[in-house]
Amino acid sequence: MKLKLPISIMMLFVSYQSLAQSDHIYVSGRNILGPCGDTLILKGVNYAPYNWGGDPSELRIDQIGRTNANAVRLMWYKDHPDPDVNANYDNLETAG
Question: By CB neighbour count within 10 A (0-12 exposed, 13-18 middle, 19+ buried), where does 92 fall?
């Protein structure tokens, strides 16, 4: 009987740890966690060239890359009259 309690506690801890780790990014409380359970800190830029006079041909991916940002917040349009806009967003994704 004395051995069952520590084993039960250990099994509970092991099962909790396996649930905590995932193969995707997820939220736990106020933290964003990566697949290994590490806390992710987003360092990003806002980029909305189409509303404030920007030209779709001037995406400036290289300048965004120099900021060492790991997140880019983009204005997204369901339907945009310029077909190059979606192509430019694809270029951002390709640039990593």
Answer: middle
Q: Where are the beta strands (DSSP E) in the chain?
A: 26-28, 31-33, 44-47, 71-74
Helix, strand, or coil here: 33?
strand
Three-state DSSP state, 5: helix
Tell me the two tokens of residue 70: 């790991």
Question: How far apart, in Å, do the first and last CA atoms of the chain sit?
Answer: 56
**What confidence tier does 30 reach under pLDDT thresholds 50, 70, 90?**
very high
In the block, which residue shows the tokens 């994704």?
93
**Which tokens is 33 given?**
């966690």
pTM: 0.48
Position of tokens 């917040």?
A: 73
Q: Residues 43, 73: contact at Cβ < 8 Å?
A: no
